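Progress against Task 2.4 (sequence-to-structure conversion) is shown through the following example record, which the project officer requested during the mid-term review.
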Amino acid sequence: MDKKLKYPIQIAIILVFALIYFLVRYGQKQAEEVYWKFNVAPDKPMTEFICKANNDYIFKTSGAIKKIYIDGIEHPGNSSTYIGFKTLFKKDTRIKLDIAMSGYFTSDGTIEIWKGTTQVSFPRLYVLKTDTYSDHAINVKKGTRFDVKRSEELYYAGYFRNGALAHEVLVKDKKDMMFQFYDDYAIKFRAGEVPTALIIPETYRESLTVTISSIQNRDRRTKELNAAYFIPAGQVITTPFWLDVGDEVRLSAHYIMAATSGAWQKIYGRSFYADSSGYLQIKAVQDSSVDRVHINHNKTWKLNISPDTSSTIQVYKGDILKSYSKSRYYADGKLMDRDTSNEHVVEKDGYIEFKSSIDPNIIEVRVVSRRGY
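Structure tokens generated for the chain above:
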């Protein structure tokens, strides 16, 4: 009887060693590869993929990501609006995706994986636990934003400064969230009730759109500045926008006060009219962001100049003026045509001298732009 059992036992031992050899070789092979592709179908799901510790991976799918499994456990979250993400784990981690599939005759799809690739712009996958914050943090600067698509599950956003939690926000509404920052933080996340997977894009700095027009909204021009204004409650900023008395300003934000050198005016839901000349100042009543500014310059001069006399207007670099008269006239010694709007672009601080011709008429001069805006 011992003789009969001898060979099956030997075969079993050989099979065990063969399996160990296969797993070791498979692990080595996977460690050496930098690209993998899974062809999936309803009856052929993705097999688990091992993300090796401390390595960057990018996953790209042919359809929306329906489910994410981490170490065999489903992690609901906000993956359904994405077709890819990047990730990095502190320890070897098994991951499996269930994706939406489509085709003319059969339903199928692909899942591609790259190892060690960080150049491609993909949102990051955060695998969240309920008891600890995520290892990875988003380092944000004042004036930046990032957006998070609605999640199926509750989660916390923690605001860290110098390694300590400053405050946290529970995100409980199933809607898209926009996080905007009025100070520098490291943002981490943790799950609210059950393990959760969040896919979050990179931060971005929103531009500031400045629209400049002159009286009666003529000569409308638009400029894009590098960054919108993110103003914490109580903070005052001085903008580069010079206003003359009577100039109008409209801002995109609520809970904002404005001034030049006069008294603060609350401009929630209405325009601000400068009561003195100076640079526009903005003060936030509560945390506010300004991404659009409309400046309407109303400054005009009507010069009634006798022959052989002149009048000067003080100007600054970046100013743009327009002048008009029914008669010919001189601007800085240059003869201007009648019945024509003539533009004057100022390249340095100084004065523009206007002089009438032999048949004088009123010369109307209006501001198009002040000091570049």
